[in-house]
Amino acid sequence: MNIRKLFEDIQRKDSFNAFWSYPEEKNLSTLSEKLSSIKSPKELRFLVAQICALVFERNEEGSFLYTEAQNLLKYAEATIDKAMATASIAGTYIDISHPSPTQDTDKFLTWETAVTTKLCERYRDSLTTFTAALDVHEVQEHVKMVLFG
């Protein structure tokens, strides 16, 4: 069995949704379901913070998911702050939760895609680290849970 191939398969599947639905007994799919209705970086920051708070409550400090949530929260906050600063012509922070019709809507889509891509990368890297000490059978079971629930 080729473990690298399994990780590539995960990347090709919807890695973002897979991250939020693993493990099954601690389903965190709320965020991925709401992604299509998010209209601003502020809304995404709020949802990420909500999900991370849930992870912190359900997991012990230092655990895989707890650490992932910490990393995600830090990354999301930094990315959102940068996106909001970039959206302002003067370089100051603005609220773009209700963009004007003349505002470039592609900026948010580009930013959202970058965040999703980064989350997929972080998930893949974390999965590689998380499964490094496991034997092949355990990795197979883990991957089945991630891909198929």
Describe the protein's architecture and organization.
With 149 residues, the chain is mainly alpha-helical. The chain has one domain (3-148). It is built from seven helices and no strands. It has helices spanning 3-12, 15-20, 30-34, 41-58, 64-87, 106-131, 136-148. Helix 1 (3-12) runs parallel beside helix 7 (136-148), helix 4 (41-58) runs antiparallel to helix 5 (64-87) and helix 5 runs antiparallel to helix 6. The longest helix is centred in the last third of the chain and has 26 residues, at 106-131. It starts with a helix and ends with a helix. Residues 18-28 and 89-102 have low confidence and may be disordered.
Rounded Rg: 17 Å
User: How many separate domains?
Assistant: 1
**Percentage of residues assigned to helices:** 55-70%
Order of helices and strands: HHHHHHH
The largest pleated sheet is described as: none
Q: Give the DSSP E fraction (strand runs of 2 or more residues).
A: under 5%
Poorly predicted runs: 18-28, 89-102
List keywords for this structure.
149 residues, mainly alpha, globular
In a few lines, what is going on in this structure?
The protein has 149 residues and is mostly helical.
Produce the secondary structure layout.
Layout: H1 3-12, H2 15-20, H3 30-34, H4 41-58, H5 64-87, H6 106-131, H7 136-148
